[in-house]
Amino acid sequence: MYPDQIAASTPDKAALRLDDAVVTYAELAERSRRLAAFFRHLGVRRGDVVALQMMNGFDFLVIAWAAQRSGLYYVPIATRLTPEETGYILADSAAAVFITDGERAPGAAEAAVIAVKSRPAAAPHLSVYAVAAHGGETPLLWSAVDACGPALDNAALHDPVEGGDMLYTSGTTGRPKGVRRPLDFVPLGSEARRVERARILFDMDAETVFLSSAPLYHAAPLRFVMNLLRMGGTVVLMRKFEARAALDTLVRHRVTHSQWVPTMFVRMLDLPPETRKGADLSAHRVAIHAGAPCPVAVKRAMIDWWGPILHEYYAGTESIGLTHVRSAEWLQRPGTVGKAWRSALHIVDEDGGELGPRQVGAVYFSGGAPLNYHNAPEKTAAASHAAGWATMGDMGYVDEEGYLFLTDRKAFTIISGGVNVYPKEIEDALLLHANVADTAVFGVPDDDLGEAVLAVVEPRAMPADTNAARIEAESLLAFLRGRLAGFKCPKFIDFCDTLPRLDTGKLEKHKLRAAYADSGKRGHRVR
């Protein structure tokens, strides 16, 4: 289904909620129809691209549905990007329309200039609009739509066809890569694959009240929300995540389903015990998490609090495969991200050979969507196996029953003294310490070992001075030595106020590696 069909039977049902405001299915259908007609009025044709860069809000999803129903691609762009980074995505995707919010309008105009200068002459004209007043020259979208008058009503009678998202990977190790699937322009409402998966794995339906506290410009929240709006459920949005507000929203709106990343769990667990204990979460049946590996101790604590309602999956923007695990299975195999669902796993060594159970190698999938990075054949080739399998760049192993355990990103594996060291194992151990709120472990150049292990810790209580920091670093090393082999323990430990994480929870380790590349700036040497 799609919003128009749902509106035909339940026009006044809440499709979207944000704070005290509501958009009904009738309103979502009408606004997206009218905007779709405006796109046609601009000369945008099937297969063209609409880009949007804005915080969570109703306009975001109206724009996405206008593109979806028009046979267009829609490209959500992270709000944290610079105009130069945004301009790269606009040029690479060949966007025909770029829509932003008022706060980002000045940067959007600059990004559009950069994009137009760098893309081919044959690319479509780029129209730029803002959805809110901003004091600049960028035209306001809804004023432009209204100015077209009755002409849009007639244009809206065209038969709607399926478009699709075009998403860019987060680019934690370089330029983001675009993932663009071919469009078949089948009648709107034909897309059922992800809807079926949501029903089977997460028990979603028209009665679902889904909390999306993460930015919609990321793949997981956007796809979950768009799928639920095909089912007739209600989406509860947050403008941005804040732990107490998220807990209050779960209670207030009787949320049945929610989606998280592990850093959100950490912040929720930091709430006062009396606050957590007093929250009525009786309606909350399914809590879905992915985006980054979840430390075992954190997930145990969440299950203890919320009950065995956590569902974890491992997938990516590329859609090449998926694993899934429920709480009961996870408790029997702590740390797993589940078994492959409608796809197959392959663990591969450096020579491309397939490994057996409990042998660590690169994680590949078969049976999912074909991998094809937009305008990047060399990146597609680097992530593809001769057998037709594809990888997202993670390392891991499967047990005898086929459950996958991730060890780390291949790019983050540390080779110290000729031995592979996987940072995630060290990070998980550090997070068990009472004074560690977050941590990142990575390799730095070392004349003796090739690479040395360095840990950057975001402490719950920052050491008062250099001497206290040195003592705390030694204490952390002693803590680790009781849990890890000596060669895995950090050679250097440093402290910071906040680690650089994306909204998805992914660490931007390339930034840390650059910051600590200088051998004279590596924190406290602890061994």
TrEMBL record:
<feature type="domain" description="AMP-dependent synthetase/ligase">
    <location>
        <begin position="6"/>
        <end position="367"/>
    </location>
</feature>
<dbReference type="InterPro" id="IPR042099">
    <property type="entry name" value="ANL_N_sf"/>
</dbReference>
<dbReference type="InterPro" id="IPR000873">
    <property type="entry name" value="AMP-dep_synth/lig_dom"/>
</dbReference>
<dbReference type="Pfam" id="PF00501">
    <property type="entry name" value="AMP-binding"/>
</dbReference>
<dbReference type="InterPro" id="IPR025110">
    <property type="entry name" value="AMP-bd_C"/>
</dbReference>
<comment type="similarity">
    <text>Belongs to the ATP-dependent AMP-binding enzyme family.</text>
</comment>
<protein>
    <submittedName>
        <fullName>Acyl-CoA synthetase (AMP-forming)/AMP-acid ligase II</fullName>
    </submittedName>
</protein>
<dbReference type="Pfam" id="PF13193">
    <property type="entry name" value="AMP-binding_C"/>
</dbReference>
<dbReference type="InterPro" id="IPR020845">
    <property type="entry name" value="AMP-binding_CS"/>
</dbReference>
<feature type="domain" description="AMP-binding enzyme C-terminal">
    <location>
        <begin position="425"/>
        <end position="506"/>
    </location>
</feature>
<keyword id="KW-0436">Ligase</keyword>
<dbReference type="GO" id="GO:0031956">
    <property type="term" value="F:medium-chain fatty acid-CoA ligase activity"/>
</dbReference>
<dbReference type="InterPro" id="IPR045851">
    <property type="entry name" value="AMP-bd_C_sf"/>
</dbReference>
<dbReference type="GO" id="GO:0006631">
    <property type="term" value="P:fatty acid metabolic process"/>
</dbReference>
